[in-house]
Design brief:
alpha/beta; 24 nucleotide stem-loop, u2 snrnp hairpin iv. U2 a', Chain A; six-stranded parallel sheet; 7 helices; 24 strands; about 20% strand; elongated; Rcpt_L-dom_sf; signal; transmembrane
């Protein structure tokens, strides 16, 4: 107990001493660390130790709490870092949870495997995860990372990077409650970088991951990927665009679970989407003309459904998630009427950052239009009711007046006889 108290006092002294000259950015991190109870000793769990230097250098690494599995720090490993990958691996070998930001920028390291023991990262709302301008980096290599809490992760400008190698990442959630997704940005990469099919399925399985901004292509298929290039009986994965037309064999689509391209359904007589009974993911990738400057305008849509006059059931039986950099990720045009409720239900079930459009209208606009139609119908009904009532009243009034005239005329005739 005495040793734990000494450790706590040392941590708090170091924590307090560094506050005098801290920048506003560092001060905001301090508040986050306090919120996360960094430096406190908990009898029922491990202490969250503090590293009070945001720059990782040979002169600061001696202060890193190498014995701790939970570390509070904004780790910045930059071009001035004079430590080898082996030395970094030795310093970080016991760290499993990082509370704070992580930036690796401008280095010559071949990977981030010196952080291979890291299982979770919680950056808070003031920090993010950033890998950029690492000229020799071939992969990220955080092989044990399973969860991240952050608002964004940027991977950029690493010319030798070939793949991510994040095989166990399963959970993401935004640091701030007002955000609904964690944005994964991959940009300014060379053509040798690619996303594997397993990686894409893995990311698509993470509900709150926003995969809109991935400027990359798919890797070349291997036999182990079990990839088809067109629909066929028993095929589960298709690389490339799939178009369902009036003469397509719908039975060939029943086993398909993932389409790594755009799905188009047009000019058919289908009434429902039940023939896509196994489809879980639709995810086109590609860095075609205009992609880097205007991805929302030039990017490939995930799903296009048009000119299907009998289609009334718009439910995808098994679809979990789609990704597309296009402004409109799912497009419905010139089909049978889709209700606002159907549109909103699809948007919610797929947890989309950009919802579907129906004849150019978003779900919200579709709802507004529907309400306007209802209001117009109610107004027409009200006006019609008033007119009918007036006509009835006028009709009744005319009848009463006619009867009164007839009665008076009869009385006058009787009086005239006398």
């Amino acid at each position: 107990m005495g040793l734990k108290l000494l450790i706590l006092l040392a941590l708090l002294c170091d924590f307090g001493a560094s506050k005098e000259n801290e920048t506003p950015k560092f001060a905001s991190s301090r508040k986050f660390f306090e919120k996360k109870h960094c430096g406190e000793i908990h009898p029922d769990k491990e202490t969250a130790c503090i590293f009070n230097y945001d720059n990782v250098l040979r002169s600061t690494i001696g202060f890193f709490p190498t014995h701790c599995s939970v570390v509070c720090a904004d780790l910045f490993i930059g071009k001035d870092c004079d430590l080898t990958e082996e030395e970094l691996a030795l310093a970080f070998k016991n760290m499993k949870r990082l509370i704070g930001g992580l930036t690796i920028s401008g280095t010559n390291y071949t990977s981030a495997k010196f952080l291979a023991g890291l299982e979770s990262i919680d950056t808070g709302s003031e920090q993010n995860i950033l890998f950029e301008d690492n000229s020799e980096m071939i992969e990220i290599g955080l092989t044990n990372l399973t969860s991240i809490i952050t608002d964004g992760w940027l991977i950029s400008s690493s010319p030798k990077m070939k793949t991510l190698n994040l095989p166990n990442l399963k959970y993401t959630t935004p640091a701030e409650s007002e955000y609904t997704h964690v944005e994964l940005w991959i940009e300014k990469m060379e053509p040798n970088f690619c996303i594997t099919f397993d990686e894409m399925e893995q990311f698509l399985n993470i509900r709150k991951a926003d995969l809109t901004n991935i400027a990359a292509n798919y890797c070349e298929p291997t036999p182990e990927d079990d990839i088809c290039t067109k629909p066929a009986k028993g095929c589960t994965r298709i690389l490339g665009d799939v178009e369902i037309g009036p003469d397509s064999d719908l039975n060939a689509m029943k086993s398909v679970e993932a389409i790594f391209g755009t799905l188009t359904i047009k000019n058919t007589s289908i009434e429902s989407l039940n023939f896509l009974e196994s489809l879980k993911y639709v995810a086109p990738l590609g860095t075609g003309s205009g992609f880097k400057r205007f991805p929302a305008l030039h990017g490939k849509k995930a799903v296009i459904i048009m000119n299907n006059p009998y289609l009334s059931n718009y439910t995808f039986p098994s679809l979990k998630k789609i990704r597309s950099e296009a402004l409109h990720q799912i497009v419905f045009e010139h089909n049978r009427y889709m209700t606002p409720e159907q549109c909103i239900r699809m948007e919610d079930s797929l947890y989309m950052s950009r919802g579907p459009t129906v004849d150019g209208n978003t779900c919200v606009l579709l709802k507004v239009q529907s309400l306007k139609i209802v209001e117009q119908s109610q107004m027409i009904f009200l006006v019609a009711s008033i007119v009918i009532c007036l006509m009835l009243l006028l009709g009744i009034g005319t009848g009463i007046f006619a009867r009164w005239c007839i009665r008076n005329d009869n009385e006058y005739q009787q009086f005239d006889k006398y």
